[in-house]
Amino acid sequence: MSRKVVRSSKFRHVFGQGLKADQCYDDIRISQMTWDSNFCTVNPKFVAMIVDASGGGSFIVLPLSKTGRIDMSYPTVCGHTGPVLDIEFCPHNDNIIASGSEDCSVMIWEIPEGGLTSPLSEPVVKLEGHSKRVGILSWHPTAHNVLMTAGCDNVLILWNVARGQEMVRMDTVHTDLIYSACWNRDGSQILTACKDKTLRVLDPRKGTVITEKEKPHEGSRPVRALFVSDNKILSTGFSRMSERQVALWDPNRFGEPLTLQELDTSSGVLLPFFDPDTGIVFLCGKGDTSIRYFEITDEAPFVHYLSMYSGKESQKGMGYMPKRGLEVNKCEIARFYKLHDRKCEPVVMTVPRKSDLFQEDLYPNTIGPEPSVEADDWFDGKDGQPIMISLKDGIAAPTKSSEFKLNKTLLKSTTVCVGDQGNRGGVRKTVAHYSTIVLKYYQYYHPYHHSAISTMEIESLRNEVKQLREALEALTKTVNDLQPKQQ
Fold first, then answer.
1. What phi-psi label fits residue 470: left (phi over 0), alpha (psi between -120 and 50 degrees) or beta?
2. What is the pLDDT of residues 20-79, one digit of tens each?
3. Which CATH number among 2.130.10.10, 3.30.565.10, 2.60.40.10, 3.20.20.70 corresponds to the domain 15-350?
């Protein structure tokens, strides 16, 4: 009598759970556009969703803590003249978000701390270079202020956002509509999937094709692809009989897939999300009610099915929380923000563990918010590896500001300028230190970062803030006393 052997994996019992109604975001008019983007982006501070708007395009940005019913009059970001097709938060600055629209433009926005209090219609940067609608945005994973955009004009553009300049234009590589475009782990390569049934690995600075694969999937419906572990490529598409498929490729041997699995006969495009820390890929189908997840390993068949989360309502889009925004003390390995017609529902993926201590095997060092190279240096040929952080003690504030650096002063500085030059340095340092303390307070009170700082530390922080406030007042008084003498 044969006995089936179950593959051993610490992620075999991962389960998904939708949060309760009071932890969802209700009464939001999610966009009805028929475009295969995520329609949602999220980071440890905010969740943003594309919404219906009359006479233009807009999206709503909410602090994570603002759950429940959202008032119809809640302010939106509404600078586009056509519907918004894609949005994405900057990985190096949680207050910066990019949007692409049918009006052929890309806009960069700065969201105030705490969220919007009035409609935002003036972007900090407007990028114009596409001749048709812009449906794909992707920030560089390690280089500061580098943005990739792809439009329906079959053109892929790399921007230096800090300068507001187009740096690389790839207008002869793709012969048809670009379905998806993404970076590899260090941003040294770009992977695109095109309507001409070809996967291409590109050199981003030269704008040339490194390698390509024709017909990764036989069907004519959209293909999505992304880099996974060891620079391998995972693609989702359709067979000739319209069955949904997932395949894993080695770009060094692009002839045959390492594995190709058929899933079902649904018609929704599968949106893949990959977690490099755990090797798990999540497949979310547009119009589906479920999220499938697989573990990618070095053993055949390489892509191992784990389980499936099934909800009650179909999903119109999906946001994926970066690892640094998860609750590690609850063994949470992923959190999705699932869009319904009038609602956004967080879905939490958890590894069941009895202990609430930090689980080092589930949380290796992960990619942090610090960029490792500036835009100018990256375009000059310098690559930078991701700067890793530990999640054991919570998320520390970035050690340096990740603001845009440009002549136009696109983003506000955290420093203040009062009085004479001799005293500005002291005031500047005081305010910079003060802002660091405020960030620590935010982490302490934020519902998803309650463990970021201990309760014992909060008293010393209060005393430090008090001393800083007194020092700031004294410095400001000194500067004000000096100003009449200079005149």
1. alpha
2. 999 999 999 999 888 888 999 999 999 999 999 877 889 999 999 999 999 999 999 999
3. 2.130.10.10
